[in-house]
Design a protein that fits this description.
The protein is an all-alpha fold. The chain has 18 helices and 2 strands.
Length: 413
């Protein structure tokens, strides 16, 4: 879980969501959403996985009959998210290859042809082959590389202090316009990012939880992971926005923000090509490990529910991904596939990565807390203190009703 903290949700998604939603006010709303709601639900999902010891579908089936339907809903959501995650991971691989050729291209140049599609195919095939053979080696490799990537991010963030746009970036990120907090849309995207970054409602936490030993204190472990997630996300913003304002980029550019900005950063640095080579290789490793985690959630459900061998379920999911990811890949090619005026990938991320993730997290918390006895939830946490037990129970039971009230607020706004 800690290794997965350094992934696309932090390095790619968080900066562009901050840029599109006004900076400091969004960050404040995000931190509130994280502390008040997201972290308790994270603990609940991890504890539920440890209690049930099965795939996400099997875990929710033990709640009640509606749980089976919800379990498959989570698998479908994770399938949709992973399909475009593989496309973005392909971008990181493409940039790593460009750096090896000593030519890191701006994003517009990278997407002139069909690079987005070809690299998506390459990443999906590679992930399928690795999952057939087992991922123990790549997981160990990722755990070794993630601290190095974090050091790179800190180094670039410190370098950003010297840029002309630093003061503007500081104001953008850390000075909130409190009037914006009255907008329900801001809170909706903030909750979406909080749920997304902690992988709530997507099956990851339930699957990870099934492997956690009995002696583990779930609240303490979850707080460590959430703290790591938040720190990396804020560092990523600190790394990106000084350069965005220095070079005159649009902070609301969307999903390509980091890929627009970083090539220019490395072009301006001494030994920039070599640093770009190392950074994008590490960025690819982080993104790829996130993809493997998502694919494992889907594969576990398919293998358990259809009594398939690991090899056959991996191949089936891999072929499915090759089809499902094509529209997102084509949105950054000459085809420029779009929905509602935005690239198909951006539409998938905002609809699935925000709307559906929030809905899934709220429904899952409600199912657990209304249909699973509180002593069982307490037992699953492995904590001596009852503070988290009561807090999780109250948050989980009230969320469906608060969610309905929030929808009314959005409609009336």
């Amino acid at each position: 879980m800690a290794a997965a903290a350094v992934g696309l949700g932090n390095l790619w998604r968080f900066p562009y969501m901050v840029g599109e939603n006004g900076g400091g006010a969004f960050i404040l709303a995000y931190l509130i959403a994280l502390l008040v709601v997201a972290i308790p639900i994270m603990m609940l999902e991890v504890g539920a996985g440890r209690l049930a010891q099965g795939s996400v579908v099997g875990t929710f089936r033990q709640v009640n009959r509606l749980g089976t339907v919800y379990g498959w809903f989570v698998v479908l959501l994770t399938t949709a998210i992973t399909s475009y995650y593989l496309v973005i991971t392909g971008w990181t691989l493409g940039y790593a290859v460009s750096a090896l050729r000593m030519a890191v291209e701006p994003f517009d140049d990278f997407t002139v042809g069909y690079n987005s599609l070809w690299y998506f195919f390459a990443v999906t095939v590679l992930a399928t082959l690795l999952l057939i053979r087992g991922v123990r080696a790549i997981e160990t490799f990722s755990r070794l590389l993630m601290p190095v990537l974090v050091l790179f991010i800190i180094g670039i963030a410190l370098y950003a202090l010297r840029m002309d746009g630093w003061d503007q970036a500081r104001r953008f990120m850390f000075e909130a316009d409190f009037s914006q907090l009255g907008r329900p849309g801001l809170w909706f995207f903030a909750f979406g990012q909080a749920f997304y970054t902690l992988a709530i409602g997507q099956g990851y936490l339930v699957t990870y939880g099934s492997y956690i030993p009995r002696r583990t204190n779930v609240p303490r472990a979850s707080l460590v992971v959430a703290g790591t997630e938040t720190s990396i996300a804020l560092l990523a913003g600190w790394m990106i926005f000084p350069f965005v304002f220095t070079y005159g980029f649009d902070p609301g550019a969307g999903s390509q923000l980091a890929f627009d900005t970083l090539p220019r950063v490395f072009a301006e640095m001494g030994a920039g090509v070599w640093l770009a080579m190392a950074f994008f290789f590490l960025f690819f490793a982080a993104a790829f490990s996130s993809c493997l985690a998502g694919l494992k959630v889907i594969i576990a459900a398919v293998a358990e529910e259809f009594s398939m061998s690991n090899r056959r379920s991996v191949l089936a999911v891999g072929v499915l991904m090759l089809f499902l990811g094509v529209p997102s890949a084509l949105s950054f090619t000459p085809v420029e596939l779009s929905v509602m005026g935005m690239p198909f990938l951006d539409f998938m991320d905002q609809f699935g990565g925000t709307n559906v993730v929030v809905t899934s997290g709220v429904l899952g918390a409600g199912l657990f807390c209304w249909f699973v006895p509180r002593p069982k939830i307490a037992y699953s946490l492995g904590a001596k203190s009852r503070w988290w037990e009561y807090r999780i129970f109250i948050v989980g039971r009230s969320l469906p009703f608060l969610g309905l009230a929030f929808i009314v607020w959005m409609l009336l706004d």
